[in-house]
Design brief:
Structural class: alpha+beta
Radius of gyration: 15 Å
Strand order of the largest sheet: 1-2-8-7-6-5-4-3
Strand content: 35-45%
Helix content: 10-25%
Number of helices: 3
Distance between the termini: 16 Å
Length: 158
C-alpha cells in the first residue's frame, strides 16, 4: 500500500515541502540498504522508463553522492548532494541538487525516515523547500514512480 500525504508550505523557509508516505513489503534494514547503497539505487531510482547507468555514494556524514539518470528519449543528466544524517536503518538525510538546473531549481533537503510496521516498513519522505508548485509536482511524480519501482525490486526478491 502506498499513500501520498500531500504537500504544504512552511513558514520557516517560505517554500514548499513535499511529504509522501509509503509502506513497503520489506524489513527496514533491507529498505535502508536500497535507499543508501549505489549498487542498489541503480536498480530502482527514477521515474518509469528512466535508467541509472551510474551512481556513486560515500555514505558518511559530509560524504557526497552523484547519480546519472537517462530519460527514455534524451540525454543523461545528473543529481548530487551530500549526506547530512545517517542512522541505519531508521533515517537518511541529504541535500539534493540538479547539476543541470532549470531556473526554478534550487537545492533541497531530502529526509527519509523508516519505521517497522510488523509487516514491512513505513517510509516517510520530506523534501524541500521548493520554489514553485511545478517543481514540487515534478518531484512528487518522480518519487512516486521511483517508490513503485523500488517495491517491484523488493517483490522480485521475495
Amino acid at each position: 500500500m502506498n499513500e501520498a500525504i500531500g504537500n504544504e508550505a512552511t513558514e520557516e523557509t517560505g517554500g514548499l515541502v513535499l511529504n509522501l508516505e509509503y509502506t513497503l513489503a520489506a524489513v527496514p534494514e533491507e529498505v535502508f540498504r536500497m535507499l543508501a547503497e549505489s549498487a542498489e539505487l541503480v536498480k530502482w531510482w527514477g521515474p518509469h522508463g528512466f535508467t541509472v547507468p551510474e551512481a556513486e555514494a560515500n555514505l558518511v556524514v559530509g560524504g557526497g553522492y552523484r547519480i546519472r539518470m537517462t530519460p527514455p528519449d534524451g540525454e543523461p543528466f545528473h543529481l548530487s548532494g551530500e549526506f547530512l544524517e545517517i542512522d541505519p536503518p531508521w533515517r537518511l538525510v541529504y541535500t539534493f541538487r540538479w547539476e543541470e538546473p532549470t531556473p526554478d531549481d534550487r537545492e533541497t533537503v531530502v529526509d527519509l525516515s523508516l519505521g517497522s510496521t510488523g509487516q514491512g516498513t513505513r517510509l516517510v519522505l520530506s523534501q524541500g523547500p521548493f520554489l514553485t508548485e511545478e517543481r514540487l509536482d515534478l518531484h512528487r511524480n518522480g518519487w512516486t514512480e521511483s517508490f513503485e519501482k523500488l517495491q517491484a525490486v523488493l517483490d522480485s526478491r521475495a
